[in-house]
Amino acid sequence: MPQLSDLELDIQTKLLRATFLTNMAVMKKFLPEIFEFYQNYTPTRAKLTFDHNGEINMVSDGALVYEEHAKANSYKQAEAFYDKPRLFSYSLSKDGNGLFEHENALNRVYEKREQEKPDSKFNLLKHEQHMDLLSMIGVGLGFHIERLFQLCDVRCFYLYEPDPDCFFCAMHCIDFGPLIERCFSLGGALTIKLGGNANQYVNGLNLFMVTHGFSNISRFFNYRHYRSEATDETFKRIYELAYRFSSGWGFFEDEIISVDHTISNVNSGFPLILSQEHFNNQLSDKPVFIIGNGPSLDETISYIRGNTENAVVFSCGTALKPILDAGIMPDFHIEMERTAELYEWVDAIGHKDKLKQINIIALNTVYTKILKLFKNAYLLSKPKDGGMDFLYEYLGADKYPAVDACNPTVSNAATAAAVYLGFKTLYLFGVDYGWVDEEHHHSKGSIYYQKGSHAERKVMKADMTVAGNFEEEVSTTQHFDNSRASLEILLENNPDITCFNCSNGANIQLTKSLRFNDIPVFESIETKTALIAGLLRDAFSQEEVSALDLDVLFQDKLDQLKQIIEMAVGITSVKIDSRLHLTQLFSNQFKYIASFKSHKETQVLYRFLQGTVNYFQANIMTNAYCYQDKEQQLSYINHALEIFHSHLFFLIDKLVKNREATKKH
To answer: Which one of 7, 195, 268, 370 is least enclosed by Cβ atoms within 10 Å?
Structure first.
């Protein structure tokens, strides 16, 4: 077996050290957090060594990481990936109801590819020698990265290494400078995430998309270098949670509704929630019942009815009908859906006289006519929303905070409202985020089971199963699973909140499982009605906005928005010579739109465009990838861009007409 002489060992050691110092200089310039992390670093578990072949290797817990020939075998692994790459493909969900032109235009983008049926079963990597996005789990000694960058161009590279010792070793073995510069020269980016867990990796990848554009999700390559408990869990999570990257971006027509409803609600005198330093909740230590419309509400409704005087009761959306039918009067009703069609759902509840006795707390986006069905209306400021972005040009976000984790379902709005109002102890009833029986997917007293109702739904199809709260597992949908994750984020960000999950649905992290018949006996809340009235009076205000003429102020935004759309369309209105050229143009277009995000006076303009641009870029790119023939591909790209551009001009015309119609009324 070859052994290194003392001279060879000295030379190799110095070369490794020189590579490390070169990389540290590169990190200081491009990734300063990594430079700071490794400036005085000493590995504790994994270290470099020369193996029995006299080749560089890594030893961890007393054993070689590579059996032998670390570089050669890493090269072979990269070449095998090049031959049979693993990748995630974005696809457009076509289950919309055609309510928005957004859906219809995206369907037209898809239809040409569907009609032409190109043979999309080819090795994309070999065909283009290019990856728009490579997500890699595990750095090892880095030789596989070096080889992949030799085989093809990598535009955006997201590297995750759970073990910082491992990356320390890799910085002695390969030169990261040319890799970073190559990504940059292609208009892309290189991101390195060290440590953390699988969820943090997925969140980091989502942040990468937010920063660099969701067209990168169209095909992203996923490479795992080595097997370990951490990398296996990460590899599993990326495939479980990748759907969360590919929706929920918002779109222009949605923001038109948001702005219209927000201006209308403020003009109607409905106040906005204040930050907690501006009011005192004298009920903060009292139990709060959050009542969702999940199937387990039926088994707890008698308990709730017997304890309404002992707790503050929040009803969520469609749960209002079964609880009113059961004789329960909530202290607050919560709504969050923005479309006017929600009015039919609320109107179908009946109990019109009772609604006039109930205060409603709703997101700023909810249709004004719905809010006027109730006693009084109070607004929660939705984050990342066109209506609030517009108001925040004139309001202080410190005084009127955006209410985080208030969506995607009404139970999120209710739990967030309770937390932002200063309540400390929550009990969840019918907040199931899943079901045991597909025919019992909501409370049996709800509108979903009313014959002839537009909401009637006999069964609900599951997308997946998840761990249950009282059952081993329950069925759920992606939408409900997103809602569960949002509630977990709310609780993680507010560790002083105690939340009991009394629902027979999905397990929710950071809650305590508690069956309703094990809940301790509560004392009756004296003068509850007066205390709630005082809380609403003090916790909501319209002081700063009441003097503003919002219709006139928004009119000034329309000309700016039209100019931005013309510029954005201009970026992709050039002669395109390849899909790679389109990638660069989409990147430029995305960066142009994103440039309006960080300025208070233009944030609403960014909000109008970012979701629509993401959806069209991702869908056009996804379909373009399916063409192997270049002429067919270019024909498709030009066809799809024409639809995209026409849609943007349609949207600005729609917004102008909407505002004119609103002013007339």
So the answer is: 7
